[in-house]
Amino acid sequence: MKIAVIGQSLFGQEVYCHLRKExxxxxxxxxxxxxxxxxxxxxxxxxxxxxxxxxxxxWRAKGQALPDVVAKYQALGAELNVLPFCSQFIPMEIxxxxxxxxxxxxxSLLPRHRGASAINWTLIHGDKxxxxxxFWADDGLDTGDLLLQKECEVLPDDTxxxxxxxxxxxxxxxGMVQAVRLIAEGKAPRLPQPExxxxxxxxxxxxxxxxxxDQPAEAIHxxxxxxxxxxGAWTEACEQKLTFFNSTLNTSGLVPEGDxxxxxxxxxxGVVTKAGLILFGNDxxxxxxxxxxxxxxxxxxxxxxxxxxxxxxxxxxxAELVIAEAVRSAWQRILPNVLxxxxxxxxxxxxxxxxxxxxxxxxxxxxxxxxxxxxxDVYMASTFGDFTQLLVRKxxxxxxxxxCSIDYVEMAVNKRTLHMPHQLFIGGAFMDAEGAKTFxxxxxxxxxxxxxxxxxxxxxxxxxxxxxxxxxxNGLWGKISARDRGRLLYRGPPSPSTRPDPTAT
Length: 505
Description:
Elements: E1 2-6, H1 9-21, E2 25-30, H2 41-48, E3 53-54, E4 60-61, E5 64-65, H3 67-74, E6 80-83, H4 92-95, E7 102-106, H5 118-124, E8 129-136, E9 146-153, H6 160-184, H7 217-226, E10 233-237, E11 240-248, E12 259-261, E13 270-273, E14 276-280, E15 286-293, E16 299-301, H8 318-334, H9 354-367, H10 375-380, H11 384-396, E17 408-413, E18 416-421, E19 424-426, E20 429-431, E21 438-442, E22 449-454, H12 458-474, H13 476-479, H14 482-489
Parallel strand pairs: 1-2, 1-6, 2-3, 6-7
Antiparallel strand pairs: 4-5, 7-8, 8-9, 10-11, 11-15, 12-13, 13-14, 14-15, 15-16, 17-18, 19-20, 21-22
Helix pairs in contact: 1-2, 1-6, 5-7, 8-9
């Protein structure tokens, strides 16, 4: 079938590529004009493939389709328009032109959450089910007949990014291909959308994303995650706007002990703890925020809010300087409008978007042989200087906040001194049991007491389970690709030249 793809983004690129693999002829791609010297991924891919690419700044003027635009489109002879993700308003002269009409992808279960911020509102409303719809375009706003829908469970701590990356992106691509296949086979349904349960919500913008504290903790959590990462839920505290990310209701075992953070309009002050920032709803239930963006754009761990500047800058070795320059070149390729990437160059203030974050992370991983790097790291170190320092710390293996503090028990055995931890290990730290409870551990060879070992109480078990759940759901291991996990598992021992000298002091 002859197809015109109208849209943009990595999602549009993937749909385009999969349609070509299915044997369809993409006769033209219509995408957005270049921004800050950067072409959209869909247009870039089509140009590589020799497919005609059109970048119209607008399709209409004064409510009428531009004749020149319509003529260029009609000359392609498309039999179907596929709109995987499109931010432009396409006139009905284009929508209705092909033999099979036009189909559109929408990231919600229509008729619920019509509008451009459907994923945000799915989370803000606390929906237990999410999904996407592929529908036949009409002259309404996401009101056309349904062709195909797929649903998924919305997890308690899902954000716009996690829901999109886990289901809406990969399954949406498959869904678009399936929809085109059904059309080609003459089996595509046209199911009118029911009006019952229909909702429309406006576009979420920064000015409308301010947190309303006069509601339960779950509603505040849903508001924060529904605006994570864009546009970002914010509040006023410490005479500045703070934007919150990575929220969770999983606070089992957490004790609100730490430095208080007065928040304008909040039911109770927040509490900065080692785990992050604890917030309270008007029902006195807690939620935890793990990352905060300051008004100047810098992203920090919430646990570091009252801490001063980080550790001093590292002095790079010659090998590390080579890596830094290679990374600088990657930044330069991604930010073509920046004449020279300096240490103060901010990735996002220079025009980078979320798609560029993905590209940067992948390029740096390739440069650094599968280094454990995730999108969040770019947000946490958005200037080139900070990013380079973070990268080098990771390469050296000292990117953690500090060494784990261990209280060892020493024991002399066979002319050797053994060092044995005796505390509970929870959430990456050794700690005493609740109430400092202990029990004796016995040497089976002679019945003597080796030492007192912490005796976990019910509250300690709750903390351990909560920490394990958080590590499983939010930890780095589950986020990195199978390829990178494999590299870590099969990584050999360090070469002799890189092993520490046991005689060194």
